[in-house]
Amino acid sequence: MALNLEDKKLIVSEVKDVAANALSLVIADARGVTVADMDNLRKQAREQKIYMRVVKNSLAKRAFEGSEYEVANAALTGPTLLAFSMEDPGAAARLLKDFAKNTEPFEVKALSVGGELLGAEQIDRLAKLPTRDEALGMLANVTLAPVTKLARTLNEVPSSITRVMAAVADKKKEAA
Fold it and tell me: Single GO molecular-function term (predicted)?
């Protein structure tokens, strides 16, 4: 179905707005994937706050103009599926990596994060980023460790005094 000029402007505007707020981008080729598999992928993407859309390359290039995703223009060849992570930078990479493992014709072409274009072979670099909750948990552990160690140290002082006093009392009993 051919798009008229207004439809194209609307698509460019929508993708541009999403790109302005996104944390990362994964570009994939979904040729040969069944409709049922794509529906399942889209459902998972919605649940994980990932914006996914198949966009013509010329429209994607226009949408990326002036954004940090402009570096991804080199990867815009052939049919293109764009997946923007909106809340967790590694969400789209994790989802599409898992999907590509289980779906043979699906192929990740490139990634973009922080104005840097990464090849598909570097998907683990982005997919292994911790989620927000995992990162907060790590931060809590790091900040809690010194406090815990201080509490143990301070708790050890009275215990040491008690052991010394018990040892002195035992010596006096032995001497008497």
Answer: structural constituent of ribosome
